[in-house]
Amino acid sequence: xxxxxxxxxxENIIDTAKDESRLIFNIVKLVKNLIKDKKVPKNIKHxxxxxxxxxxxxxxxxxxxxxxxxxxxLFIGLVTLSYVLKNLDEKIVMKNWxxxxxxxxxxxxxxxxxxWILPKFIKRYIFAHVHRHAKKHLPKLKMDVKELVN
Length: 150
Prior knowledge:
This protein is mainly alpha-helical. It has helices spanning 2-36, 42-56, 71-87, 90-96, 101-117, 120-149. It has one domain. Helices cover 81% and strands 0% of the residues. The model has no long low-confidence stretch (mean pLDDT 76).
């Protein structure tokens, strides 16, 4: 009886991990599609470029070769997308979303959690910092990032 319960718990954990890993790659696809979309404002594109550079970069808070290495990419992606979802029309987001609706609902739930857990002053500082550096450095990096996106 206990073995069956343990096996079911393990299967649930594995299924959740699979869903979360699919979510990470759907987030990256969404970021790529939003960068290409002409209806997305420049200030949001700056944030998306910064996240894409962080995701591609081999230097992470948690290195990707560690089994839970993509968790920092997921968290930073959720912080980014919580900002995007708040500041962009949902029709544009849904037009660029390639995952299923269940996964999108999970994304929104995770974004609400990030909104709740991360203090506003930290988010304001992060995004102001990204905007300031994006204006300064993005013209130099834009060609390289566009090649990666395409």
